[in-house]
DNA sequence: TGTCGCTGACGAACATGTTCGCTACGATCG
DNA sequence: CGATCGTAGCGAACATGTTCGTCAGCGACA
């Protein structure tokens, strides 16, 4: 069954490092930077590492986890502002927008990250920074803790939704279809849509995103968590 | 090339309806109710319709669009409360929670819907109802219009994130990994996480969801949209 | 009546993520 | 030094969504 056991003469390759998780992630990052994320497939990665696709699953549970690792590297570039009691609000909104923009360039990354909560080093630093900014703004600890979750989710979901980079070009058509459906909505059946028609699509993406973050931060700030101190032991 | 042109004797089938979009969606719904959403594959659907997978793409652009059609049928069951100036807030939060719960049973539906804005009849009714409730609560039209987007997105994203029904059982492991990462976060490196540790994971899913919706509604209500009336012609 | 051309349908194929057993290497132990 | 066993690695396979080139059937027209 194995007469062609010629080991492909891997003399030109750098002696084949023994295949580790970090190595796989590093190669994935290189491919992504050189050819884009959509070229980072399990098979391509395996070929690059001179092995078969199945071997990768020893170090990475699935594609989503690989995406998580890639994101964590991207997050390293994010500039984290210090917690300042005066500028906390604008810094926070800016940071969230920057996070969202990072993902907007790689929507399929956003889709993976939405499913699988990342647990990388840089992601933890991001969470910590957001918590710090909320605290600097006087937000109670419980609300800040619950809020950081929703704030990051909003950014991730926005990127997953609005991002149509290459791979899924048809999504624009769908959005246009939705816009048309709203525009053509019969007035008597959907009176509120008719009334809000002009406002539903107004504003650029960035404006709306900033507004959404501002609104959510305001809500997190002003909304108390239920029965806050009862469970205290 | 076609000596086996025996038409499979479709005498037992109801004469094979001539393959329409509505028919495909109806069969998809039946399969979903009988065997679960994960069994609704293009191939299965084609087999059921006595054709090949390729034929479906005449009536449906892709799997996501099919998911959108399925969701719209599910949304028909949603009870839409009337716009009441007194009870608007609880009705609104309740409706959003109901919408989220609908999707929580079918997370892959949520993931599709997040990408592709649905434009079905029932979805439009939902949007209209939410707009009406916000208006009943005295929210300015512009903020309501921008808010309905974010509110629905929060529900959809939550379902896509927390939903681990069958198909992706490993996501729980990842979440546990994230929890562990947060618990073990070194105190000096992530002081805010350390401080918020107990609050980060407190509360049941339903409690947190209700709180998130409440907070977001409050924010939408209190946050003005930028330069509201300038573009007016 | 015979021929042309069009459109809906389809069989086959491709690339993807993921899984299943087998293989063969290397450490461990007698 | 030799036998044993655990395990990393891997080839092959499977099911999925999606696309491509082709074909049958049918209406229009000479």
Automatic annotation (TrEMBL), chains A, B:
<feature type="domain" description="HTH tetR-type">
    <location>
        <begin position="18"/>
        <end position="78"/>
    </location>
</feature>
<dbReference type="InterPro" id="IPR009057">
    <property type="entry name" value="Homeodomain-like_sf"/>
</dbReference>
<protein>
    <submittedName>
        <fullName>Transcriptional regulator, TetR family</fullName>
    </submittedName>
</protein>
<dbReference type="Pfam" id="PF02909">
    <property type="entry name" value="TetR_C_1"/>
</dbReference>
<dbReference type="InterPro" id="IPR004111">
    <property type="entry name" value="Repressor_TetR_C"/>
</dbReference>
<dbReference type="GO" id="GO:0003677">
    <property type="term" value="F:DNA binding"/>
</dbReference>
<feature type="region of interest" description="Disordered">
    <location>
        <begin position="1"/>
        <end position="20"/>
    </location>
</feature>
<dbReference type="InterPro" id="IPR001647">
    <property type="entry name" value="HTH_TetR"/>
</dbReference>
<keyword id="KW-0238">DNA-binding</keyword>
<feature type="DNA-binding region" description="H-T-H motif">
    <location>
        <begin position="41"/>
        <end position="60"/>
    </location>
</feature>
<dbReference type="InterPro" id="IPR036271">
    <property type="entry name" value="Tet_transcr_reg_TetR-rel_C_sf"/>
</dbReference>
<dbReference type="Pfam" id="PF00440">
    <property type="entry name" value="TetR_N"/>
</dbReference>
<keyword id="KW-0805">Transcription regulation</keyword>
<dbReference type="GO" id="GO:0045892">
    <property type="term" value="P:negative regulation of DNA-templated transcription"/>
</dbReference>
<keyword id="KW-0804">Transcription</keyword>
């Amino acid at each position: 069954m194995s007469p062609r056991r010629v080991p492909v003469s891997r003399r030109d390759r750098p002696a084949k490092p023994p295949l580790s998780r970090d190595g796989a992630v590093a190669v994935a990052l290189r491919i992504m930077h050189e050819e884009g994320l959509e070229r980072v497939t399990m098979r391509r990665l395996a070929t690059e590492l001179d092995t078969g696709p199945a071997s990768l699953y020893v170090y990475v549970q699935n594609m989503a986890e690989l995406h998580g690792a890639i994101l964590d590297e991207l997050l390293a570039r994010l500039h984290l502002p210090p917690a300042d009691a005066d500028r906390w609000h604008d810094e926070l909104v800016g940071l969230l927008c920057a996070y969202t923009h990072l993902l907007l360039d790689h929507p399929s990354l956003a889709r993976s990250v939405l499913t699988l909560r990342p647990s990388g080093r840089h992601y933890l630093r991001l969470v910590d920074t957001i918590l710090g900014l909320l605290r600097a703004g006087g937000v109670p600890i419980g609300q800040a803790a619950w809020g950081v979750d929703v704030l990051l989710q909003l950014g991730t979901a926005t990127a997953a939704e609005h991002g149509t980079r290459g791979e899924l070009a048809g999504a624009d058509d769908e959005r246009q279809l939705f816009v048309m459906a709203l525009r053509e909505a019969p007035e008597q059946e959907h009176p509120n849509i008719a009334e809000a028609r002009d406002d539903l699509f107004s504003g650029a993406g960035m404006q709306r995103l900033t507004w959404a973050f501002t609104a959510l931060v305001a809500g997190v700030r002003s909304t108390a968590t239920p029965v806050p101190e009862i469970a205290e032991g």
